[in-house]
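FAQ

Q: What does a record look like?
A: Structure on top, sequence underneath. For example:
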């Protein structure tokens, strides 16, 4: 029987928590976006279009960092309170490297780490139950 690797990612535009459903050690990873309020303030002083361009480049780099950590998983749930989960979903769907990964985005409220872990556990347990 093939092992299914499942990953939950709770994210917003500033950070992402990667929660491996199959990991026993519960050693979750975090990825931080490099675009911060100081960048925004400095670039806004020069021009809004420059700020937007810089923000897009940093967001692309942030999503690429996350994407490198997703490789090797079969199922992925993206969740969180902002549109970042949908933006990452579209980013991954555009890349054929991720075509075989089952991906879904779920709207949630803001959560602490323990709530995120419970969400991932409940999500994949419910999902496995539906498919058995």
């Amino acid at each position: 029987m093939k092992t299914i690797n499942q990953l939950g990612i709770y994210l917003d535009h500033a950070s992402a928590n990667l929660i491996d459903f199959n990991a026993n050690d519960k050693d979750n990873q975090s990825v931080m976006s490099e675009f911060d309020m100081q960048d925004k303030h400095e670039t806004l002083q020069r021009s809004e279009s420059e700020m937007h361009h810089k923000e897009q480049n940093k967001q692309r780099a942030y999503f690429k960092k996350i994407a490198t950590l997703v490789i090797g998983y079969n199922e992925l749930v993206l969740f969180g309170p902002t549109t970042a989960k949908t933006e990452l979903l579209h980013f991954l769907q555009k890349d054929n490297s991720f075509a075989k990964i089952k991906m879904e985005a779920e709207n949630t409220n803001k959560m602490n780490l323990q709530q995120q872990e419970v969400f991932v556990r409940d999500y994949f347990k419910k999902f496995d139950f539906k498919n058995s």
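Q: Is there anything notable about this one?
A: The chain has a mean pLDDT of 83.
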